[in-house]
Amino acid sequence: MDLNVMSKEGEPTSRLVSTSFVPSSRDDLTLARLGKKPVLKRNFGFMAILGFSCTVLITWEGSLIGFISGLQNGGPSGIIYGFLVVWVGTLSVFATLSELVSMAPTSGGQYHWVSILAPPSSRKFFGYITGWLEITGWQSLVASGGYVTGTMIQGIILLTHPEYANNMQNWHGTLLFWGVILLSYGINTAVGSLLAKFEGLFLVIHLLGFFATILPLALLSEHSDSSAVFDSFLNLGGWQTQGLAFCIGVLGNVFAFLGGDAAIHMSEEIRNAAVVVPRSLLTGLLINGTLGFGMLIATLYCMGDIDIALAENPHYPFMSIFRTATGSTAGAAVMSAIVVVMAFSATTGCLASTSRVYFAFARDRGLPGWRILKKVSPRTSIPIYSVITTAVIAIILSLVNIGDSTAFNGVISISTAGLFGSYLIAASLLLYRRVTGGIRVANDEDILTNTVGSSLTWGPWRLHGIFGIANNIFSCIYLVFIFFFSFWPPSLEVTPQSMNYAVLVFGAVLLFSMIYYAVWARNVYSGPIVESIPYTGSPTPP
Question: Distance between CA atoms of 249 and 236, rounded to whole angstroms?
Answer without folding.
Answer: 10
